[in-house]
Amino acid sequence: MISSKSLLVLLIKCMISLTNVVLEAEAKAFFVFGDSMVDSGNNNYMVTLIRADKPPYGIDYPGQVATGRFSNGYNIPDLISQAIGEEATMPYMSPEFTGEKLLVGANFASAGVGILNDTGTHFGHHIKIRMQIQYFKEYQERLSDRIGPEESQRLVNKALTLVTLGANDFVNNYYLPLSPTSRQFSIPDYVVYLISEYRKILMRLYEMGLRRILVTGTGPLGCAPAELAVRSQDGECSPELQTTSTLFIAQLQQLLECLNSEIGSDVFIGAHTRQTNLDFVSNPQKYGSLLRSRAI
Predict the structure, then answer these.
(1) Helix (H) or strand (E) holding 22
(2) How far is residue 186 from each of residues 94, 189, 219, measured CA to CA in Å?
(3) Which of 116, 171, 233, 245 has the largest CB neighbor count within 10 A?
């Protein structure tokens, strides 16, 4: 899992770099798909080892409440919702997600998931990405019942979407001890396989009507606290995982460019979270005194 400090870096930089995109989209609804980086509480409603419903999660959230966000406070979807002037999207699994709340969008993300179905299965239940997409279809039917099919389609077409996947496919799949995946693939071949599967996911979201989709890469995998604890002898980031994340991000960017070219429109927008982390560490003054004090 990623640390609170690293998540804060991603939050702030994401908001700075994507503000113009958000305003241009004029989004009134917001949809979220992915893993723990963007889960706002769906895992609270299932039997799983991956939960964020107890302290120290939420220590900086209003009321100091652990809400199921894998963060000390607000997460990326929260801040994007604030930027577009809407209330935060609710977890789709919440029993309170009804009525007018459907018009705001929905958060389908679930901690532990990856691009592949077998990623993170050792944690217990979570909402696999293909099930997240199935829930989105169910959501569209509920929305259509409420506001009619034409208005429902218009809301989805104009919405902003965030997709965050990939990190768990490495740290909670390929690089696990005795992983069958690592015996089946070399890293270059595995990345190619992941990208081919990711393509299917992104195209399915497009086919379902989404037209403004932010896609994040992985952060610096080799610098995640859990990986440092296992792999580092001197506090330095793991070169192998760093190389892996670089390879994945490069091919993901190529995928997004290819998809946009095929569609004939800039539907998919890459958000470079790995460079965000590295830039923050190497040049903290660029982000102001508040961030410097938080990063200590």
Answers:
(1) helix 4-25
(2) 40, 5, 21
(3) 245
